[in-house]
Write a structure and sequence with these properties.
Distance between the termini: 53 Å
CATH architecture of the largest domain: 2-Layer Sandwich
Bound molecules: dioxothiomolybdenum(VI) ion
CATH class of the largest domain: Alpha Beta
Radius of gyration: 26 Å
Shape: globular
Number of helices: 16
CATH topology of the largest domain: Aldehyde Oxidoreductase, domain 4
Length: 692
Amino acid sequence: MSHATQPLGAPVARREGREKVTGTARYAVEYHPAGRLYGRVVPATVARGRVTAVRTADALAVPGVHTVLTHENAPRLREPDDPVLAVLQNTRVPHRGWPVALVVADSLEAARAGAAAVRVEYESAGHDTVLTWDHPGMYTPETANGGYPAVRERGDAEAALAAAPVTIDATYTLGGLHNHPMEPHASTAWWADGHLTVHDSSQGSTTVRDSLAQAFGVDRDRVTVVSEHVGGGFGSKGTTRPQAVLAAMAARLTGRPVHIALSRRHMPALVGHRAPTIQRVRLGADRDGVLRAVSHEVATQTSRIKEFVEQAAVPARVMYASPHSGTAHRVVALDVPTPSWMRAPGEAPGMYALESAMDELACALGIDPVELRLRNEPAVEPDSGRPFSSRGLAGCLHEGARLFRWYDRDPQPAARQEGRWLLGTGMASATYPVLVSPSAASAHAAPDGSYTVRVNATDIGTGARTVIGQIAAAALGTPQENVRVEIGDSDLPPGSVAGGSSGTASWGSAVHHAATTLAHRLAEGGTVPPEGVTATAGNEKETAASPFARHAFGAHFAEVAVDTHTGEVRVRRMLGVFAAGRILNARTARSQFIGGMTMGLGMALTEGSTMDPLFGDYAEHDLASYHVPVCADVTDLQAHWIDEDDHHLNPMGSKGIGEIGIVGTAAALGNAVRHATGARPRSLPITPDTLL
Ligand code: MOS
């Protein structure tokens, strides 16, 4: 099919696909301004304490080393809005891996040799890095990540649980997880005539521009941040990261461009991660499976310098009808790196616990797990009483069960064996909120009949450029090849972060409005003047409060084989069905869903960050020990969707698809392991040793 005839929703190929596969797409460290220097972070080797001396003589003697930045000579920052950016400003070490020096050299090799030669002395105090349910210092915060109230109560969950004929009371334990995008965090920075330019691997360069301007005390229009191509982020590049600040500091001190690519070893401590959670879920139900009470309590950790609370109990406010509900988060500040966003923060760990508990309830009642969920479909959003703009969960459950041939299963656990393999199937629901953030866009018509749209969107590998071109082309009534798309530069109209599954809805709304306005102007105005015609627009309408509860939903189905000799779990097939509004590009959407499901497979079976209490550090510092799933782990993985016609979203009718694929996947796999073996996993990852 020619692109000219492709409507919105068609599987249009990525605009930058050829550049990427031929290696000509340039990433943040591939800009080579003349005189570029290389920076290498020296991480703290204690988990709590104070730097008493940084001895730099040996490092400065390494050939090629220019300078060593420490708390003594680094440029002073205005107190950054984000405490994780206040690097080299004082002697405090809030966690192991915190930057205590930066070596700047002519080459990467010299910078590394210099960093190894820096001698740092510490006064260290005993550290505390291990989360427990009733940890001393545990407190109830005001809000959890996303601004959600930390505690919500409706009815009397305790009394309803006590009175319920059937109850489940289970505690699920999740360790830390790290985002580990393929491209490590990297920045190339230089100052020229008081203007700071940074090529940064980020999910939103408008945000990075604003925080650098604030930290360095310069006007926003004196800072340009470019994120042209980004090799993944999964939330870890959604906020400004220390390497951007360090590169800008070193560039200011040396008067030269400075380039910092974080070593994979340095990432676990410096770029955020999914905090560990301990989650207690209690369900009370009648014998027919109708829920009387839902209680979801979360204990989690943050760092000593910043409060970040993984909002894992929030999806329980959305999922199932229940007259009584209690959802609560508690948090404790430990001597650990600051947690942050990792794909579907809140929903991914929270739905692991809730959907595992729902499976436990289904088993206790002898009710099919799909049927149990259908019996608890709410008429309105349970916690708020608001109507849903659309709620596609039941459709996903029905369609998924049909496509997966779910009802072929014998519900009896440990009943299917093939040689040494025990086979089982499991399912779980998924949900993710519809989020929209302020963005602006311009659309320009040239006299030759071509168009250019500009918006500071970021393409983190998702296909943002492509879908923006489709949205503009649809609004302009022109083939998408006729539309140039400029994104990834903070000098463009401001765009929101590529996060919260909100990018397409946020940028796309602004692009749609700008393009529509332009089309009207052109229709009125006759011929296009030599300078062209430009229209600009924001997305104020879409970011205004909605009277509707707006969420995407999904259903996951999985079949696993468990080796009775070794405890190895192999995923034979996974199938997800999603209801996420209108799908705008079938090709890139499918990749997003499958990518999310693959990351959920990792969460279930292979990925884990293990806190070493002796060193106060996550033990996995490379991809040899932090096991991201590889192709051999993913054999038969299918994503399907049900297009929804929802008019309470945005002009495109889209909900957001980046994160829902990871939500519920781990529960579906855990439930399949339980069906295969009869053993109920309550912690992740489900490694062989936990099944023997
Ligand atoms: Mo996503 S964790 O909101 O980048």
